[in-house]
Amino acid sequence: MSAFDELMAFQRDTQALGQIAGRLGWDQETMMPRGAAPQRGEEMAAIEAVLHARRSDPRVAEWLQQAVAPNEAGEAQLREIRRSYERTVKVPADLAKKIAQVTSEAQGKWAAARADEDVAAFVPVLEEVVALKREEGLALAEGGDVYDAMVEDYEHGMTGAGIAEIFDAMRPGLVELRAKVLEKPAPKMLQGTFDEAAQMKLTRKLAKVFGYDMAHGRVDKAVHPFSSGSGLDVRITTRTSETDPFNCFYSTIHEVGHGAYEQNISRDYLLTPLGSGVSMGVHESQSRIYENQIGRSRAFTGWLFEEMKGAFGDFGIADADAFYATVNAVHKGYIRTEADELQYNLHIMLRFGLERALMSGDLAVKDLEGAWNERFEADFGYAVDKPSNGCLQDVHWSVGLFGYFPTYSLGNVYAGCLYQALRRDVPGLDAQLAQGETRGATAWLKENLQQHGGLRSPRDTIIHAAGMEPGHQPLLTYLEEKFSTIYDL
């Protein structure tokens, strides 16, 4: 075997072990008994130690030095393995193991604190997570910016300053448009109750409508919807609320966007570094374009309106036009995952500023709740009423995902670019969506973006698919046109 072949064989086993670790995480969120958390923490730490040892194995450096890539994909494989190796060797193995153990246990403590509305119960473990992640960031940064080192894990090639520049450019337009919308009468909201079993039946139909392959996936329930896995085993979760079926349906469509991306990557890349989404920002572009530009479009909501009437009977919305307005209503709310398109990015900007301050040491964990509440009231004009609607609402910080939040808004930016290109390239798109037919859109995304996995950098992935440099203007144009129509601005 050549050095390249030996490296890829070694890497395949490493990727397989990583998938096993991911399956443990899926189980912890969906089916694991609550009392198993301490043992699961040890299990996660043990497998992380094995993965860290493999990713930092000196033979990887030797193979990288000797390997000759056979083609463009091979060059990309070497690039990604090298990037992973160079980052991994900077982090001591004991630290990586400790982070895996503490964050696994912290996840359960966050869930309990959230249920009890008890920030004080969560502060000690979050302090430990922040300290460990800052230690990791310092090792990775090697004298550079700690937060930049964190972002590199999720959106390589991007920096905190680069994100701040994009957010600063977006913010005035979002705030101005929101002010105009909130001066208008609000659309009628859903009322009554919606059987949760019927919600799950329709949500599984929606998953299939958007191209999710149930032969290689499943839909379960979790407190915080997520997707997990790649290749031949890609799982998603959703959640239900008797009074808010949109929470279930659009969480599902969102996670299907993630899941379909993973399922549609070329099988040639299975269990290789190219066999997953290239970055969290690009990943989020898929979930957001499925959920919003496609799933909340006037055409598709017309079809969904009829499906909901079939599932639940008359639910008080007069017609498809009124339903479209209801689906896209701009409303007050605390929860990021339930936010309308117009205000969603403001929720992300809040988290971005806070976690950047946590990583720099400018904000202490004990002061996080107060800082969150102050920033939220300044941004949204009303006070947080309870911790589960404030700094305890998201799982991300408990599991150490610092640098992850801004990729949600980067995904919206990328989705704006992709949607502009999609409408250009797929004639009759609205007529298809009105029939509940998404294949024109999803096939375009598979062909131009999803099948390529990690072949290109995040920026080049969007350029290749959309034919333009990533920028925020297509997203703002889309939002202005959509909400001006709905609210008669």
Automatic annotation (TrEMBL):
It catalyses: Release of a C-terminal amino acid with broad specificity, except for -Pro. SUPFAM superfamilies: Metalloproteases ('zincins'), catalytic domain. Its EC number is 3.4.17.19. Pfam families: Peptidase_M32. The active site is at E255. Its cofactor is Zn(2+). The keyword Membrane does not apply. Binds 1 zinc ion per subunit. The keyword Lipoprotein does not apply. Keywords: Carboxypeptidase, Hydrolase, Metal-binding, Metalloprotease, Protease, Zinc. PROSITE patterns: PEPTIDASE_M32. GO terms for molecular function: metal ion binding; metallocarboxypeptidase activity. Zn(2+) binds at H254, H258, E284. GO terms for biological process: proteolysis. Belongs to the peptidase M32 family. Broad specificity carboxypetidase that releases amino acids sequentially from the C-terminus, including neutral, aromatic, polar and basic residues. This is Metal-dependent carboxypeptidase. It comes from Leisingera methylohalidivorans DSM 14336. The lineage of its organism: Bacteria, Pseudomonadati, Pseudomonadota, Alphaproteobacteria, Rhodobacterales.
